[in-house]
Amino acid sequence: MLQWPQEVNELILADILAFVEALKSQDRSDWEYVPSYNSVTLISKSKFDFEQEKKLLLDAYSKRDGHQNTTERHCWQLPVCYDSEFALDLPMVSEKSGLSEEEVIRLHTSEDYLVYGIGFLPGFLYLGGLPQSLEIPRRDDPRLEVSPGAVGLAGKQTGIYPQNSPGGWNIIGNCPIPLFNPKLEPPCFVKVGDRIRFHAITKAEHKLRKIESEVGIYNLNKTLIDA
Questions:
Q1: Domain boundaries, the chain
Q2: Least packed by Cβ within 10 Å: which of 15, 16, 107, 187?
C-alpha cells in the first residue's frame, strides 16, 4: 500500500489516479490496483523483486503528469426514491439539520459527488462533496440490516448500500439500480474518480426502474467528464 497525506482531498485523489495510469502504461499485467481516498493498494499475482519494483514505482510516479487524462471518467445519473417507505431517517436528518425534508432532498440532489473509494461491501460507493448543511453524524445505534439500494448520509459522505448488510448511516432514500453484479465485467460499472448525480423519483417510478434493471433493459444515463 502506498499512502498520500491522510486527508480527503480531490487533488490527492487526482494525483493517485494519474499515478495508477502511469503504472498501467508499464508492462504490468500481473498487477491489480485499488485506489481510494489517499492510498493505492498494489496486488501482485506472482512473486516480485522489491527493489526492482520500487524503482519502477518511483519512475511511474515521476511520469504521472503525462497520464492525467488518459482514462475516461463519467458522471452517472442515478434515481433515488425519497418516499417515507425508504427514507427511514429523513425526519431525523431534517430535524438535526434544521431543514425541511423537501430541502434535504433538494440539497442531496444538487451535487455531483466524487467517488473516492469502493469498498466495505462489493460496489459500496464512498461519495464526497456532501453539502455542509447535510453533514450528520452516523447513527448511535447501527441497524442490523439495511436494504439493498439504501441511500445514506454519514459525516461528510453519502453512499448506497449495494447488498443487505448491517449499517450505521442515516438512510434517506433508495436507489433501484444495482451497483454490483458478479456476472458482469466489470461487476461494478462505477469506478473511483467518477461522479454521481442523484435525481428524485416517485414510488411508482422506483418500482418501474427496479423491474427494468432486473430484466436488463434499464438505460444508465452518464456524461463524460474530465479525468
A1: 2-67, 73-225
A2: 187
Contact 74, 194 (CB under 8 A): yes
Quick one: CA dihedral 210, 216, 217, 218, positive or negative?
Answer: positive
With cell 417507505, the residue in question is: 85
> What does the alpha-carbon distance between residue 183 and residue 94 come to, in Å, rounded to a whole number?
39
Query: Domain 2-67 has what CATH class?
Result: alpha beta
Does residue 33 contact residue 117 with C-beta atoms inside 8 Å? no
What stretches in the chain show pLDDT beneath 70? 66-70, 226-227
Amino acid letter for position 22: A
CA distance 80 to 90: 13
CB 163 within 8 A of CB 97: no
Residue with cell 498494489: 42
Strands annotated E in the chain: 2-3, 31-36, 39-44, 73-81, 113-118, 125-128, 143-146, 150-154, 157-160, 165-167, 170-174, 195-201, 221-225
pLDDT score recorded for residue 11:
92
What pTM, to 2 d.p., does this model score?
0.89
